[in-house]
Amino acid sequence: MANSIKAGRHYGFIIVACCCLMMGVNIGITFSCAGIFYKPVSSSLGVSVGEFGLYMSIMYIASTLILPIGGKMIERFSARWLLAGNSALMGLTLCAMGMCTRLWEFYVAGAVLGITVAFLLYLSFPTLINRWFRVKVGLLMGICSAASGVGGMIFNPIGASIITSYGWQTAYISFGLFVLLVNSPLLALLLRDRPSDKGLLPYGEKSQEDAPSPDKAAAAGGISFAKAVRMPVFYGVVVFSFLMMAMSTLNLFIPNYVTSLHFTLEQASLAASAVMAGVMIGKLALGHINDRNCLAGVLVTTLGGISGLLLMIAGNWGLAIIISGAFLFGWAYAGVTVQTAMLTRTVFGSVDYARIYSIMSMALAAGGAIASGGWGLIVDATSFHFIFFIGVGMLLVCTAIGTVALVKRK
Q1: pLDDT tens for residues 179-204?
Q2: Domain 214-409's class?
Q3: In which region does residue 44 sit, left (phi positive, over 0), alpha (psi from -120 to 50) or beta (all else)?
Q4: Rg of the chain, C-alpha, whole Å
Q5: Which percentage of the chain shows pLDDT scores above 70?
Q6: For residue 343, what are the CA distances in angstroms to 53, 254, 350?
Q7: pTM for the full model?
Q8: Which of 110, 149, 335, 393 is deepest in the core (most CB within 10 A)?
Q9: Which CATH number applies to 2-210?
Q10: Which pLDDT score is estimated for 265?
Q11: Are 374 and 336 in contact (CB under 8 A)?
Q12: Residue 244: exposed, middle, or buried by beta-carbon count in 10 A (0-12, 13-18, 19+)?
């Protein structure tokens, strides 16, 4: 039985590997590699980079719309086949993007990608890790989330090489075939919905008596979806999610900000790399911190981001100050996925986690859709310093919301 299974052999760790595959391959290609296609595709279509990049906003909007339905589906139906199926659909869509010749076709592809992203990014690892583990949940979420950065590091140079040698069409099709023919079959083969499918208890439960029924879980702190939506703290966490994602999209403007201070493009790329380093380390560290104290995780996330933005505002003092600020900002960026998921779990428990987190994910997607374009308009009307100060204000609000939500829970 479960309590005779050694830790290293528990099937939950295969589930973690599958989550890393989804984040590293599916999300790593779709998000982390999107930028390498902007210039060649827009030039080929004869449109501006901004016009082509709108497909990403459409993707966020589609995710926002599908998430409430997706949260119900992943509870009612097999997560294994939903996730493997959406991975296959993503692969087919990437292949189709390699055959697109008109701008509106990319917009349609963006909408389809948004549907798949709702499952593969927002609902996948938070739901599965909560089902399969009772301990080290934060650390494992951090590992899964960090895999998207690893995927970006692997696939970006591969994609750039293919684009240079064979064109962007071949790059899209190559990525799509890899997702369709390699990643999706692996997910279908290895994923399982719940520990009971393998005759196991969640990792960290010692006996069947430790596995709470819904009534016992609710009494221990788990809150049903119907009850949660009647609580003010629920909408506080929705605002927290929206603001965290909106703040994180400031990352898109950091390279332009650095060059506006008369640094070179190479120096600006150092700042961008520092953000990614902060994201990678931050996701792992925040997961570890949240396993011990969620409030500490909230404070590290938000106060680190505030410090980072203030240091970048003081960028005239030197490149070292900017790079330090970019690294700290990366910790707040990391908190978008890790801290939002852990705050939701800590406040509302695991009883209806997937449905509750689907609403938080909807707020995340909406924040990305609105802010990713909105910051550019504000910069045109004001300055980079102004939007960084707005980011500081957002993080202060998130600090207050997270603190109050956790105090109310107690």
Answers
A1: 999 999 999 999 898 888 888 888 87
A2: mainly alpha
A3: alpha
A4: 21
A5: 92
A6: 31, 28, 12
A7: 0.74
A8: 335
A9: 1.20.1250.20
A10: 62
A11: no
A12: buried
